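note to self: dont lose this again. the chain is below, predicted strucutre after it. 459 aa total, dont forget to put it in the shared folder this time
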Amino acid sequence: MDHLPVFINLRQKPCLVVGGGNIALRKVNLLLKAQAKIKCISPEFCSGLIELSRENTLDLIEKRFESTDIDNQSVIIAATDDDKTNAMVSSLAHESGIPINVVDSPDLSSFIMPSIVDRSPIVIAISSAGKAPVLARIIRAKLETIIPSAYGNLAEIAGEYRHKVKQRFVNLKDRRKFWESVFSGVIAEKVFAGRSEEAKADIEKYLAGSIEMNLGEVYLVGAGPGDPDLLTFKALRLMQQADVVLYDRLVSKGVMELVRRDAELIYVGKKGGSESTRQIDINERLVELAKSGKRVCRLKGGDPFIFGRGGEEIETLSDNGIPFQIVPGITAASGCASYSGIPLTHRDYSQSCRFVTAHLKDGTSNLPWEEFVVEQQTIVFYMALTSVNHICQQLIAHGMREDMPVALIERGTTPEQKVYSTSLSKLPDLINNREIHAPTLMIVGEVVSLRKKLGWFGD
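---
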């Protein structure tokens, strides 16, 4: 280990920054987060530093650095573009035993500035010993994606209850078990969801022994239309901590690869015209697993609340007193249209967009066809593949132009994506002459013609 990681308390301690440019500004902002008293010395200052001085958060001294400027400082940072000045500051600081950092010069520094993940009071520092700062920033970016910003709130709450927990659990092993349950269970998730008061109330109940610690929770997570890069940070975090994952056939292999490795996987797919898992059985399974203390991820293609039957599932969970979270996903209409170069709305072509399920029962439908046949509207039909002929017939019968542009997007956002563009009247023939597989989305409207006009040939 080239450097010993140390966190210094600089609250209201005098700190000196030598330099007045943007690099100095970045260092000043870090020191301000640490609540230091900052003096900044330079012949001239950038606008950002001048603005901070107007807010009375630091002292700007417009002059050249002198040896006496280091007196009584707790930390010094040299951030000038003059090598001689930086070397001088470094030498004086070393002689006086004051911690010194010279930006981009580890040989002149007694400490280095790491890349920081700030979830105060949780702070993570990543260092490459000054050898690869860009790599350290990349690692920081990866950590940022998996550590919720609310971890700081969780730590603050833990601090509030630390004494009470110590009184309740005299044995260190019991205390550790309690905190592990808090930090990785329902209480933590309530904090992450912005429900801190509920989380505190649960801690009080646990300490009083009025509720058990092993109650599970259900996460309804939108897996998006296929491309795993479209997952939200929250979706990824919950997927990687769930004990059990119930998933359907619309969840892509790429997304499933990101699920926690040792999680139990339960397939609950439904497919029209074939044997499938009943929705009522899925609802009951979620309740059963949560009551056994499991963290359950219900992983759904697209968004749980857009033709995903998520509403039925949370209704059952609510009736049974099961805590749950809902994580929106990018719905197929948005993802598939974007990956196909089709803007769902465009000022000159479409002022509204409708999402319609085309999952017809017994070959019939009570859709309001007249409302679909209006100018400057885009219609997106979900689950449309087996109903294309019926949809085209009804739209034309109710007055839509036969040459209205239409597109079918097969397996959208995945490497297997295919886009078929044609007109409303010609679409049935296209279906009959091509082997097209589900999931397939259907988009009807003038915006489809923009795909070729905008030069989109990325299929």
